[in-house]
Amino acid sequence: MSFLPQGMDCPLLDANALRDHFLHHTLEPSTFISEEIRSLRDVAAVMKRNLFIRDVTGNVEVDGRKLKEYLSVQEQLVKLYQAPLSRMNFFSSSTTVFEPVRRSTT
Prior knowledge:
By secondary structure, the protein is mainly α. It has a domain of 71 residues. The protein contains 3 helices and 2 strands, in the order H-H-E-E-H. Strands 1-2 form a two-stranded antiparallel ribbon. The radius of gyration is 21 Å and the shape is flat.
């Protein structure tokens, strides 16, 4: 790939540098949500590989505490996938991805 000379130096940026730049300077909800989903998917993959424990007799069992934590991450992922991007305004401090708990008035 070649670039036309513009009379000034420009550093070559790799994919990570570009991602960092746009994450710090772009307030696009879909970018934020997609990065959060990607991070949580990586966390969930590690957790899934560590769900099982082997007891002293060699039997393999599911670690209940780790399973509960894994399911919590999965629940967060589902909420992010269902997040209503059209209602998000990242310029407002009151914006949230998760719906507030609505209490009945009766």
